[in-house]
Amino acid sequence: MSDNFKVAIIGSGPAGLSAAARAAALGMSHVLLEKTDHLSDTIYKYQKGKHIMATPDQLVLRSDMSFAAGKREDILGTWDSQALSQKVNVRLDAEVLDISGSKGNFKIQLKGGDEISAENIVLGIGTQGNPNKLRCPGGDQPFVGYQLDDPAEHLDKHIIVVGGGDAGIENALGLANPDLGNTVTLLQRSDGFPRSKPANVALLEEARADGRLDFLISASPKELLADRMIVEAKDGEIELPCDMVIARLGSAPPRKLIEGWGIEFTGPDREAYPILSEEFESVVPGIFVIGALAGYPLIKHCMNQGYDVIERINGNKSLKPADQPLLEAIFKKVPGGKSVDYWIDHLRKDVPIFEGVSRLQMREFLLDSRMHAPKADEIIFRRNQAGSSLWAVVDGSVQVEINPNDTRQRVELGAGQIFGEIGLISGRPRSATIRAGRNAILIEVPRSAALKLIDTIPAVKRKVDTIATERQIRQIFGNGLDVKWIEKLIANAEYVDAPAGMTIIEEGSDDLDVYIIRYGSALVEKNIGGKDVFLSYVPAGAYVGEMALFENRVRTASVKTAIKSQLIRLSGEIFEELLSAEPELRERIRETVVERRRLNAFVESKKDNFDSVSDYYSQVADFLISEGLGEATDALLIDESLCVACDNCELACAETHQGISRLDREAGQAYESIHVPTSCRHCEHPHCMTDCPPDAIHRGADGEVFIDETCIGCGNCQRYCPYGVIQMQKIPPKRPGLFAWFLFGSGPGPGQPSQKWINQKTKGKDVGKFAVKCDMCKGIKGGPACVRACPTGAAIRVSPENYLNTVNKNGGGQ
User: Domain 4Fe-4S ferredoxin-type: where (predicted)?
Assistant: First the structure.
């Protein structure tokens, strides 16, 4: 065997193996170097019996090695036999220590002293050997592992899997086999599973529905003890028994080694990827990078890259990527007839949030995005409209209406700038109306794709965070604020992740920091007579902490988070300088302080009847937060002191929605006269949207969360909703009209028909089910039918801040 090759391929994962197979098929002199004693070590280390998916489904496979969805063992066996039959030149137990030389004459030093020469090098070494570690007190316990070989080795244990990517989900499913007797809980940091394949998420949902495992979203380890884990969940801390932890937190390239070979990365972050050309060539001519190391972890992508890179080394300059037709369809609607390559280069060069995104990552990300070329002055979205997608101005400009009372007052956002980021982060309605400028070309990134981008690429997260912070500061304190103050505040800003119930401002303290609630919510309380009295509710997008600047630098009340939240802490000293330099802003904030002083004075005036007032405020606030109003945007409440139990609300709801009521008046919890019936809260970040396979759940223009006719009845939304407000119902039979019922007794009459009548009408028929929930009577003039039908005014729909503040102003409702 010659030690001089046209190409040396390092790493026999799917990418490297596919590259070697193509070289063998072309008759190209090659060697495939693998440091272990078997092919495809990454797949080899997957848990035994793991089912491997062949996604994306719409992407064609280019490779001389076959690949279809199946078990780990079957896929590895197929690859072993095909590598042998196709005469792939494999060298096992060949660990690379160093690379030197240049294109046409590279020298590869192997462990043991052997040296190999090659004209070109293809790196397909992956990242799995460098996993991200569990970073919490106790994270170095001996029962913490970073891979799972065989689930059957673990019996009758309390096991926590940390990480909701594909690997974490698959490990949790394997360990949750009923025959093993394990109690399995998966923790996912984000509010959903943006990095995971939809099919894996569906299997996870099914396993939870069957009682085989549980999972928590918006949850992360706080501390790991000898026999339990303390977890920061959305609603506060919880303790879980724990005998074993599998942490699947992703991995990073072996950067120090690779940089030693002259390869440069897209940025300084640990998880940044190498700088690559369209042909996968690094900044070192002749060294190519493919597979997970290039930022593409999906097997089909990796195998296509392996095929393509060998074709290009062989001189095939006309070969287009396998995803080219899909991307061409996306850009076809954009005027100008520019190529896919043009748009990818343009986006990466001229839209700053994409600067840290590699070309390969851009291609994957663009498959989930949409391009728009709106007409001048066309409305992109309106103020207070619901929406959580992220937008960027690629060419031209957009106009932001900054004054809802005067649409002529506008600020221009030019090419390269983003908008919509506050709705993406906070879940709150759009804060301004956006209109297209002349020759505008825009890219819209759906929430799931935007979160994946932010979660995957630190440079994108930093840029989005900085822009969102600037916009929130301007939105709260005025667009006329001098840029020097904006920059100074941002430079000293700190992001604070706060669990539910965390005190961020303590009454009586002398710090001056101001907090913007980025997402989540908070409660303001004042201590009187040794008891905490509820004052107000503060939603995402608002701020707290400014009163100390007007009250002799002393905190006059405490603020604690209602649910898991993220805050932006602004330096009190810098904020104080700002108010001194901007008298108009100081006066505007002083007006807010006067209103809050009035509220404090009201509570103080009640101290003679303090016990009842204090208990009422605090318990009402705690009750409503526990019922989900801390993350609600619109909730139905019933004043039981006015309710006469006529059930007109349910009847009206049923009559409006195909005979199926979206609310249960009697169900739900109550505190004194305040009743929260079983009805949708229309959450800031709806749990039901976390995994909807047909993408049938949407937000309407007024913030309503609704389910459209594409629902397939999978039940995922019902399982995700923590408030039990979604039903899975049979598609109802058509009922006779009201006239036929009134005169002839035909049909079930007004309201929701009995299950007996539905069963009689659907007997013997194949009737599907669909998800049913409140849609706030979307599109119906006059608003929600339940409120309109209430004869006493007992039923009201409110946002949480409006209700809680109304309680205060009405003297506690007593």
Answer: 634-666, 703-731, 768-801
Note the pLDDT of residue 75: 93
Computed over every residue of the chain, the mean pLDDT equals: 84
Instruction: Please choose, from the candidates 735, 765, 730, the residue with its C-alpha nearest in 3D space to the C-alpha of residue 747.
Output: 735
Q: In angstroms, what CA-CA distances link 608 with 439, 528, 529, 603?
A: 66, 11, 10, 10
Distance (Å, whole) CA 395 – CA 409: 22
* Higher pLDDT among residues 751 and 341, named by residue: 341
Tell me 639's DSSP state.
E
Tokens encoding 702: 């007024």
Instruction: Report phi then psi at 305, rounded to 5.
Output: -65, -40
Backbone angles phi, psi at 10, to 5 degrees: -105, 115
Supply 638's token pair.
């019933």
- CATH 3.50.50.60 fits domain 4-129+252-322: yes
- Please write the tens of the pLDDT for every residue from 33-69: 999 999 998 888 888 887 888 877 778 899 999 999 8
Q: Is the pLDDT of residue 650 over 60?
A: yes
CATH class of 327-466: mainly beta
Report pLDDT for 743.
58
Alpha helices (H) along 520-581: 572-581
Compute the distance between CA of residue 46 and CA of residue 302 in angstroms, rounded to an integer.
17
Residue 151: closest CA among 129, 128, 182, 130: 182
Q: What's the CATH class of domain 144-247?
A: alpha beta
Top pLDDT among 253 and 329 is at: 329
Task: Specify the CATH architecture of the domain 487-608.
Answer: Sandwich (2.60)
Q: pLDDT per residue over 750-809, tens digit each? A: 555 665 666 666 665 555 678 888 888 887 877 888 888 888 888 888 776 665 554 544
Answer yes or no: are the C-beta atoms of 3 and 117 closer than 8 Å. Answer: yes
The domain locations on the chain are 4-129+252-322, 144-247, 327-466, 487-608, 622-809
**Three-state SS annotation for 352-420:** HHHCCCCHHHHHHHHCCCEEECCCCCCEEECCCCCCCCEEEEEECEEEEECCCCCCCCEEEEECCCEEC
Tokens 């609310």 -> residue:
663
